[in-house]
Amino acid sequence: MLSIKNIHASVEGKQILKGIDLEVKAGEVHAIMGPNGSGKSTLASILAGREEYEITEGSVSFLGKDMLELSPEDRAREGLFLAFQYPVEIPGVSTTNFIKTALNEKRKYHGQQPLDAVSFLKLMKEKMQLVEIDKSLLTRSINEGFSGGEKKRNEIFQMAMLEPKLAILDETDSGLDIDALRIVANGVNKLRNNERAIIVITHYQRLLDYLQPDFVHVLVNGRIVKSGTKELALELEEKGYDFIKDELSLAEAV
Amino acid sequence: MKEELDVLEQTVSSDYKYGFVTDIDTDVVPKGLNEDVIRIISEKKNEPEWMLNWRLKAYAHWLKMEEPEWANVHYPPINFQDVIYYAAPKKKKQLGSLDEVDPELLKTFDKLGISLSEQKRLSGVAVDVVMDSVSVATSFKKQLSEIGVIFCSMSEAIQNHPDLVKKYLGSVVPMTDNYFAALNSAVFTDGSFCFIPKGVRCPMELSTYFRINTLGSGQFERTLIIAEDEAYVSYLEGCTAPMRDENQLHAAVVELVAHNKSEIKYSTVQNWYPGDENGKGGIYNFVTKRGICQGNDSKISWTQVETGSAITWKYPSVILKGDNSIGEFYSVALTNHMQQADTGTKMIHIGKNTKSRIVSKGISAGKSQNSYRGLVRAGKNAINARNYSQCDSLLLGDKCGAHTFPYIESKNKTAIIEHEATTSKIGEDQLFYCRQRGIDAETAVALIVTGFAKEVMNQLPMEFAVEAQKLLAISLEGSVG
Ligand SMILES: Nc1ncnc2c1ncn2[C@@H]1O[C@H](COP(=O)(O)OP(=O)(O)O)[C@@H](O)[C@H]1O
Ligand SMILES: [Mg+2]
Predict the structure, then answer these.
(1) How far is A204 from chain B (nearest CA, A)?
(2) Which PANTHER family match (chain B) (predicted)?
(3) What is the pLDDT of residue B145?
(4) CATH class of A2-253
């Protein structure tokens, strides 16, 4: 589904990603872990098409298409969803209206009619239950004055509504208390299926306890330095990133 | 909600939609201004002598005045001798019904999406159409006259209701008020007249579509609306103008008089040709709009959506004379490319317990300049006067400007005047967030702007709100990306 090959990216002349390779297949859940500043959000941003990052080398294909050729909106319409680390407030635009617009833009792209009001409401109701989001949030301006947890839950709600083929969750767990974390994780679990791939960016084990990823990758200083199964995450939790760094410097020393 | 999205879809077409010229035989008085021109105008309109004298007095006064320069707008000097002051579609014969209206004219209305028959059938709106300077069609007049409402062109009012016109014309905006009002008083050609008698609630929205149609002809509309005790009227003014290369001057005067316990709601969607991207062409819109809450417990409410004109200079105001009277001003002013707008309101509190509310939303894009200018004055007898003003500016890009000039004058310790202002910018982060959800930048801007302006749009009658929303989206085309 997603094939990242040797991606190098920089911002303001500073090299941040230094050769990333990653293969993600339908139905898989991948976790990307790594210390702050290692380039995790940068990777998510270039996949979503943020223009301030310059891709200096490498390629990305998504569902057989050259993803780097697509505009951010077309990537989204093709089925890419990014749950933002810092969801953006848009005063005056209600969450409902925002999602409805997004959904109908996507439908238009695929040659479908806009969803009528009744079907839309029905869909909303169904998905609201799934992610246990409160109705009152949906009439408010999107993300405006939302608590950290509400913003994250709203991201997962949008994911549920838009039914992406590939979802990238950028630190959706950070800033959540244990109850909120459970709710968000449950929501994500319910959205897992054979056709959908999920990339979870986090630096804590606790979300992964709920999600049980198929693969774990460790991103340090712009490179994936280690990949493994969910046991790798446990090991990291136990020993910290230093153990990888130590391993790395050992390897480099050899 | 559905309409909202349809509206957004239309943002893809990008030329000024109403840029076309209707080919109608016009009856034009030569360019330039002097006493003789005024006499010709008055004569062509078959006016009584008092009207001519009134005009001549205004003209004499205008000659002594100077063009104002205090507004935050810049334009080359206007040559008032290069303006055509009168142009009327030639009447082939007296029109008995709409079917007899010049088909070219009807076609124009079709292009504008305001075909009269449609309007009549669908929305029950009475439309008094002002094409250039003379009203050529008036509908629903009969229905209105049965309940005593007078809704006609100003020319007809001068002929048929001279006492009312004499009593009220210039009573709110004196001919000496300002440069453009004096000019208008001297040369106004037509406009609308509305009189709602005591105790009558006008059962339909009264609506006028103004349209400039003769190359180089100035528009000097004159509108007068009177609500007697306990009367109510909602009046809609909307305009679209054809694309032009040369600047066109538009200097209208609107006067509203609200007696005891009456209410006048005046809504405008202004879409005169704004000029092209480089600021070439476009209308100069210098308007004087003022209402007086003459009676106790009366209310005047101005709502405007301004997207057009190269230059807008306009301050719909309310004089709160009656005790407990209420004045409101809701405004969305959008400027793009090289447009300049200096608009706002004046709330003059004279009576006791008078209240006013100002909500102004300025949207600037391109290299445009958008200024809010508002005066709130509480006189010494305006005990317990209250004002609340909210002025928000939204910027798209960093080459445009938003300015706020609030003036507050209070001569009364019991008056409470509150002013809040915010400025925000549509940020890259917001646009990217929308795009990541599949909403392209142009649609995202329309969505954000619609949200920003919602509080004002909600004040508009439904069918107008839809049209106004379209205008906002269309006017912002090409402002992102
Ligand atoms: N827009 C930007 N401008 C300048 N530097 C940036 C920008 N975005 C990210 N960086 C830098 O790139 C590095 C990686 O950041 P990020 O991808 O956010 O890391 P992570 O998400 O792993 O914490 C950091 O050093 C950060 O300061
Ligand atoms: Mg990050």
Answers:
(1) 25
(2) FES CLUSTER ASSEMBLY PROTEIN SUF (PTHR30508), UPF0051 PROTEIN ABCI8, CHLOROPLASTIC-RELATED (PTHR30508:SF1)
(3) 83
(4) alpha beta
